Amino acid sequence: MSRPSPLDPLRSAPTGTLWWRHGKLSLLLLRAPLLAAGILLLALLMASVASLMLGSAGLGPWDAFKAAFGHGEFATVFVVQELRLPRLLAGIATGAAFSLAGCLMQTLAGNRLATPGIIGIDNGATAFAVASVVGMGISLAPPVMALSGAVIATALAFGLSGGIGTRGYRFLVAGIGVGALFGAGTQLMLARVSIDAANSAYPWTVGSLNARDADSLTWLGLALLIGVPIALWLGRGLNTLRFTDRVATGLGQPVSRVRLITLWLSVVLTAAAVAVAGPVGMVALVGPEIARYLSRHKGVPLLASALAGALVMVLADLAGRTLLSPLEIPVGIVMAVVGSPYLLWILLRSPR
């Protein structure tokens, strides 16, 4: 009887898994999350091509693909490389960051409503970013200011929750109050500056991918480059947070350290995304829900959440650009209109 190749999946692998082994190395993967990630990645590629093709100047798939790499007619290359491609990259990056941060925060709090937008991190980052744009005596760049606002909002939510930590509805209520406070501060700043300064800060109040700052997008890319591997590394520890602290500790997980890293990773990703697109918090709610539905397992779908968020953001921006062309609808408004009914359907549908 011939022995199976060490590069082939073992026949003894548990149902619904893929087990790869080579020598002393072994890797066990669940089929459902892998299939979900593959489906979302394929859908994201298709949406990206559509985003480069569609607009006031329609392009064919091959022309759009060539123009993305600088080949073709000058006008086509200009439209793709200068207008559509930066916007597409911003949509992918911000959607992935918002959705991954939402998945992390939901897991940390044990509540599907505990996203950075709900607990005030989005509004804190937005308020400080707007302060740097409208010239309130602060010269720091929007990414730095957004991170400062996100940190302060998180600290206030923790402090006002009275030692409850990230668990329970008291933390959510404190976060909602903090978010409302920072939202009011943003509106007050906009009311006290000139109309030109208010217009320049307007995209940060509703969420927009139009003419995003290249430096902010670079900072977001670095945050994702570092944050996604850290999130995947935290995966096993995040799975144990569903149990009590004693059980998680008994399984060998440093619960306090996992929670601390998860919290600040969510804060950094949210701040970097807000510095690019403004507060599009609905992505942090819808993205993880899509990932959980497709993955169909009880773990934490981190990679699928990032891909789902990127897909949702790209589609929302594409709809905002094309539905009422030449009038453009900011992506934040599209997400609020489309995402809210979808979220209600997700929350109210009967569990299977």
From TrEMBL:
InterPro entries: ABC_BtuC-like (IPR037294), ABC_transptr_permease_BtuC (IPR000522). Keywords: Cell membrane, Membrane, Transmembrane, Transmembrane helix, Transport. It is a multi-pass membrane protein. CDD domains: TM_ABC_iron-siderophores_like. It is found in: Cell membrane. The keyword Amino-acid biosynthesis does not apply. The keyword Nucleotide-binding does not apply. The chain crosses the membrane at residues 28-54, 88-105, 117-138, 144-164, 171-190, 217-239, 260-287, 299-319, 331-348. Belongs to the binding-protein-dependent transport system permease family. FecCD subfamily. PANTHER family: FERRIC ENTEROBACTIN TRANSPORT SYSTEM PERMEASE PROTEIN, FERRIC ENTEROBACTIN TRANSPORT SYSTEM PERMEASE PROTEIN FEPG. This is Iron ABC transporter permease. It comes from Cobetia amphilecti.
